[in-house]
Amino acid sequence: MLSMEKLLKPLVESEAFQGLLAAAGPRTAQADPAGHAYVAVGLATAADSPVLLLAPGPKEAERLAAGARAFLGEDDVALFPAWEALPVEGISPGADIAARRAEAAHRARQATGQFVLVAPVVAALQRLVPALGDHDPLTLEPGTEVAPDALAGQLTDLGYERTDLVAHRGEFAVRGGLLDLFPGTA
């Protein structure tokens, strides 16, 4: 059985690809749509460096991310989604999109070696908060004891909304010693 990694070797060793790697300055490449993920993964592997893969729209970005994951696995590929609405529309972005963008930005900032960040063109054009992805995500593990009020303060600082009853992503509730949480990425 042929592994997906072995399929990268002919690409990486090709004369055209080696010319791309040898080029000075920023490297850009274009492939037929079916080969976009393949070329991006090949570039990330050969350069042992993060690569930004742009897609025309969100559906195409999801397909490209899935294609890149087939080669690199879940840990070395992130999808950076676009906001659902334009800033002039006056609509707040959804908590799930904000959380997914923060998670993807964090993973891209922490990336060393081969990594592919996939984004629709619109997401790449939208302004970013300079600190997006700077902070480590809050991790809760079984057996760890944290005072509910201290945890509530951390969640509020991260942008979670405190409610009486949790029903949506990005919300949490504290009832006695119990904390109910709906993560933005879940």
Question: Explain this structure to me?
Answer:
This protein has 186 residues and is α/β, with parallel strands linked by helices. 39% of the residues lie in helices and 15% in strands. The longest helix has 16 residues. The radius of gyration is 20 Å and the shape is elongated. The mean pLDDT is 81.
Question: Which terms summarize this structure?
Answer:
186 residues, three-stranded parallel sheet, 6 strands, elongated, three-stranded mixed sheet, single chain
Describe, in short, the structure shown.
This protein has helices at residues 8-13, 15-22, 36-47, 58-72, 95-110, 121-125, 148-157; strands at 50-55, 77-79, 115-120, 161-162, 171-175, 178-182. It is α/β, with parallel strands linked by helices and 186 residues long.
Query: Which radius of gyration do the C-alpha atoms yield?
Result: 20 Å
How many strand units?
A: 6
Please provide the ordered H/E string of secondary-structure elements: HHHEHEHEHHEEE
Query: Low-confidence parts lasting 5 or more residues at pLDDT below 50?
Result: none
